[in-house]
Amino acid sequence: MNRAAEFASVAAYDAVRRRTLELSAPLSAEDCCAQSMPDASPVKWHLAHTTWFFETFILERFEPGFRPFHPAFRVLFNSYYNGIGAKHPRPQRGLLTRPSLDEVLAYRAQVDERIARLMAERGADAQLTPLLELGLHHEQQHQELILTDVKHLLAQNPLFPAYATEPFAAAPPAAPLAWVPFEGGLVDIGHASPGFCFDNELPRHREYLQPYQLASRLVTNGEFLQFVEDGGYTTPALWLSEGWDAVSTQQWEHPFYWRRGDDGGWYEFTLHGLVPLDLERPATHLSLYEADAYAQWTGARLPTEAEWEHAAASHAIETGALHPAAASGAGLAQLYGQCWQWTSSSYGPYPGFAPAPGAIGEYNGKFMLNQYVLRGSSCATPAGHARPSYRNFFPAHARWQFTGLRLARQGG
Amino acid sequence: MNRAAEFASVAAYDAVRRRTLELSAPLSAEDCCAQSMPDASPVKWHLAHTTWFFETFILERFEPGFRPFHPAFRVLFNSYYNGIGAKHPRPQRGLLTRPSLDEVLAYRAQVDERIARLMAERGADAQLTPLLELGLHHEQQHQELILTDVKHLLAQNPLFPAYATEPFAAAPPAAPLAWVPFEGGLVDIGHASPGFCFDNELPRHREYLQPYQLASRLVTNGEFLQFVEDGGYTTPALWLSEGWDAVSTQQWEHPFYWRRGDDGGWYEFTLHGLVPLDLERPATHLSLYEADAYAQWTGARLPTEAEWEHAAASHAIETGALHPAAASGAGLAQLYGQCWQWTSSSYGPYPGFAPAPGAIGEYNGKFMLNQYVLRGSSCATPAGHARPSYRNFFPAHARWQFTGLRLARQGG
Amino acid sequence: MNRAAEFASVAAYDAVRRRTLELSAPLSAEDCCAQSMPDASPVKWHLAHTTWFFETFILERFEPGFRPFHPAFRVLFNSYYNGIGAKHPRPQRGLLTRPSLDEVLAYRAQVDERIARLMAERGADAQLTPLLELGLHHEQQHQELILTDVKHLLAQNPLFPAYATEPFAAAPPAAPLAWVPFEGGLVDIGHASPGFCFDNELPRHREYLQPYQLASRLVTNGEFLQFVEDGGYTTPALWLSEGWDAVSTQQWEHPFYWRRGDDGGWYEFTLHGLVPLDLERPATHLSLYEADAYAQWTGARLPTEAEWEHAAASHAIETGALHPAAASGAGLAQLYGQCWQWTSSSYGPYPGFAPAPGAIGEYNGKFMLNQYVLRGSSCATPAGHARPSYRNFFPAHARWQFTGLRLARQGG
Amino acid sequence: MNRAAEFASVAAYDAVRRRTLELSAPLSAEDCCAQSMPDASPVKWHLAHTTWFFETFILERFEPGFRPFHPAFRVLFNSYYNGIGAKHPRPQRGLLTRPSLDEVLAYRAQVDERIARLMAERGADAQLTPLLELGLHHEQQHQELILTDVKHLLAQNPLFPAYATEPFAAAPPAAPLAWVPFEGGLVDIGHASPGFCFDNELPRHREYLQPYQLASRLVTNGEFLQFVEDGGYTTPALWLSEGWDAVSTQQWEHPFYWRRGDDGGWYEFTLHGLVPLDLERPATHLSLYEADAYAQWTGARLPTEAEWEHAAASHAIETGALHPAAASGAGLAQLYGQCWQWTSSSYGPYPGFAPAPGAIGEYNGKFMLNQYVLRGSSCATPAGHARPSYRNFFPAHARWQFTGLRLARQGG
């Protein structure tokens, strides 16, 4: 039995679905309902939409005598699948006080039960298995969004509420930054193992890389603070034109969740609440604009996604907590589990890319424009979700994800 | 003991405060937290702000050893009083998932207890009484907003949830429309009785009125439907220029809460849910633009606020339910308790108007521009809140209040 | 022969039409084509639209065998008459580089010739005369707009070009401000003489006024500067709520055309170019927000339009130059020819107001909402255009007209 | 003497500068002043800015005793060089009625004279020559923009004025579409010849290409019309997500300059005015969204920029007229001189890219984000400006350039 089929087991299904509930457990029904910006969704909506995915793409197709949990949910919890039909307007997801959180939890329970029955009846079916597996990886993506979206919501509140009540300890000193060289040449890029991957990681194909070097770890808050204090946010020459527009018109003066205290000190809003800025931890919640400007300031650059993947191919995959931790150890550190790492690569199709037919094919391909690839994984990425060929993508201005920065430069 | 002091009694205080809780009782914490547009506030915010009013304008000033319930609430629940200081941004009230509804209810209970103690200690004090009374009338205004704001929120939901579960019966035929004549001449306008009034109803002063006539009742849905079917929304000549802009750019085709069913019939969203449009009940949720265009279409006009007040002076004040009812009986009907009635009068100061000194003076005066006066009261207005001199006011485009239309014309 | 018929004479027609050309003479074709904001029109558009008015409302109706100068002009130069049909979008008037200025001048010449022929053929015809007269008063309104619109355009140019090359001399000291009392009582308001007036000045009707006082002259730059220096633009308590919004969001710190020089001194952009702020001349280009805030600061208020008209009824009407002059002499000065004077009166219909039937009836009535009345006339108002009953109107935020401020207060 | 130095000769300078004047010759001063959208500049501004480039980057640096033509022009005609200092706001370029067109022509003449003197004095100087050459290529880019920007302006005018009075003949049938195969493998990309290139064409570097095929010619209007009639603009599955947003919110139904006639036929606005849509000529003024959707509809895709450059390397470079012509002949046709060809390649730095130091380095590098590369050249591109390695770039939504579409597909 291969890994894909294993992931599509009843136990795997239960584990992933349960994890989503655990993530929402510290939140009240009110917390789960509100939407702080069009890009972020309410937690309740995530709970329902991930369920909708199984109901719409699996039960509707395979369940004998299928009847929807609620006929209106097909529209209410459709995210962006034009092939499915109408969608509730994204910016109004936070106005759905009904169905209540309890009704959504009942929706989850009922769909879970029906999926379990279907799995029992059909077994590791060649049609069902890939869709189940896609549904679980899809749910894991929303698990990360639950944390980043609720963080954004809580950050709007002047009370700075904490998601997690555990204390947030100061990090040990970060390992010093070193440059790790790679020879380049003709390399193969894209998913290779037999396990699951998204369609955008295929086909595996050949690319030519010049010799390059990667920084051994992510840029820290302490390093980024030097950029701030050196006038980084007031020096147009360091910025891409579109980045400078954002800095000027939106009055950016520091990373997204940094705050100046009344005492003159720097603080950072985290899922543990507002804490003193920890200089040893990685700078995070950076836009691509800020990542690129910082790289310019140092004379380095961002890696391409192929450079990153080639370098990361053989490294162990770590899982993080609710905030990025400081780097430790030698070699290429912090590839996974701390911050997604901006690359200079625009998100586009690999040569020969073909999305799946039908609505499910809207998953990745239609977003391949004006977005940039991030590699690795973050502290909010669920265990088992990351891999070397994984291509995360966001617009260059996005700041509400756990996005950080690893430097690169030319030369072997 | 005059009426004012009576209203400021412990029993009156308790009754008004309890009524607010009763109005929020059918709603979940989620319902109470969401904000459907910047003009509408969450129910939880109304519950807190009305409490803030007593805490800030009474306890903070009169309570010995005053300590706030929560230091952040002074900013969080300040609506628009620049004299008090900073304000949480109005469009972001719906993001305040904390404090929770339970904490806000605890806030209410504690402030109520402290107010009761203060009233017991000071008695019908000349300083305290007017502020208590203002606070209660203020709370009654928010009771009406609780209903109109939550109606707006529920209307955004494709499930069309009902606030009230009671059935909504068809109305009996509305009384026929008659014209009631008034001679005009020199009349006195403004509050006269010893009871409470807002500062904007004073000073009582003289105005000269030409002979005029008022319609005996409000315009009904049936009558307004004729306007719709006669091309009212596609005939620019009927509309004020700014009204036609709204119609054109926002694609208005009918009153705000009317909906066309899949069966081709007309429906109306009410606090009882979506119901077939009742042709005998008053047309409501009209903007001033729509009210004026309808009047143009009939060859009549809107009354001025002085015409309305002069006509209404000696009539009984009725209280309504959750939706306007059909007119019955002879004479000038439906003055109170069904729909606020648009007048052609811009909201401005009466001759010699002077607001109270200090922050409390921001209550009315600073809004005397680009708003229009509505007279009477609506089905959502609390009992005891209406009076002939009452001046409600909203911008001409506002459609989410229970706003209707009584015709007027020249001549005795 | 009454004044109306006189104004509709060939000589009067020629004089008004010629004056429009004189006003555009100092401008290049480029100056005449550009549009600096949607509210302001290009001079070339004014030249064409005033001609369109005669062509559309007179020639099209009365000229035997009428053929338009150019079939597209009916749409291109229609301002806002829905009864005439489609309109070129207002914000795009500045993109009409064709027809050229020369073609528009040829359009004017041809229409003038045809109007002259029609006047010769029909004489002082009862149908033709009122329309001719209306067309000439309409053209005079656009003469004022030519000056205010081109001033706005030139003010956008960092070179601060002057419209007029004549030197701009310092004014003599303004007369001291005195209060002129009026008894009030029942007064008649509205146009009374046999001469021309717009429909919005009718019907003449009775109003009741309380005793009041008017300032003998307009507020000067020197006085307004004290308001600025006293923190007028940073004190919310002085402002109407909507005015404070404008101040805060648009960062208003002083009147519209005032500029701080690099030398720290105050300058004002005028049709004579940028000149040192003349403290003796009236403050002008004020919004109603600023006028009201200034009045609040002094403890006075703005007059109502009835107060103004009653006071001004018997005064001589003066004509100004390209910028307001300082007040001289005793009594009620500067009623006309310097700055339009904001009143607190919302622009609405007089009791019994009825617009003309057809498209021409769109002239005034449809704008009677959310605008405020200004009385008097300005330095840019053509000779012969002003009268005591004249009702000018603009939105409260408008700052590009020659709008100033005369104080009023209660009491005889 | 190499080509670069040759281009920097007095004769080359004169020829390029004269060509700019020839392009503006058919236009009036009014035509040259207006600005139809923030992305497009007035012709007068182009005339001045290209002159400013020589004055600022050459005269200011090299001319002994340099004095500016006008001290304000340094700011007025700075496009986007933060290193030079302040800039007149881009959306307000059309409000600069002063300096007049005549003054700008005098500015050109004076700077030309001073440049000629400098060239005479210094000869083919190693510092001067690259800047002169850059200035001339810069001017050629603006020559193309003069045509596309004035086309956009004229298209806003309901009179549909023609830039060129020459008749516009129907094209002969386009050559049939064939697929031209390429083997791919390791190829070298980037500028190679000794002649001039922009910094973004360097360094020449190695890339790996899979086997691919290119269409022998551009997509024609006739072919694109089939896409329109097949519901291309109403089928979300064909579009990138961002493209579908544009289609939906901006109601796109056909290419930018296509118009439906009252006779039901298709027309196209061209520099020759409004003409019947010529089915044999290339579809042009396409956004990348439309190009990509068309390719999806056919089952093909857009080429990458490397695929295009590798294929085009050895082909002759043709120059076009004022509108794209139909394809003729065999082999890879219409590479140059008809329409810029969208590629799927995001505009980014080549490996090792380094912009020039100082303000001149803002020319290309800072725009390397959220723009896409177009290859070839258009009918509006000046003779001598195109080359195989040339990288044009625009945002995916841009439609006002002569942008067309060549299909590609996988396989040798």
From TrEMBL, chains A, B, C, D:
Residues 179-313, 326-409 form the Sulfatase-modifying factor enzyme-like domain. This is Ergothioneine biosynthesis protein EgtB. Gene3D superfamilies: paralog of FGE (formylglycine-generating enzyme). GO terms for biological process: ergothioneine biosynthetic process. It comes from the Bacteria. Signal peptide: none annotated. Pfam families: DinB_2, FGE-sulfatase. Residues 13-146 form the DinB-like domain. The keyword Oxidoreductase applies. Pathway: Amino-acid biosynthesis; ergothioneine biosynthesis. NCBIfam families: egtB_TIGR03440 (TIGR03440). Keywords: Iron, Oxidoreductase. It comes from Zemynaea arenosa.
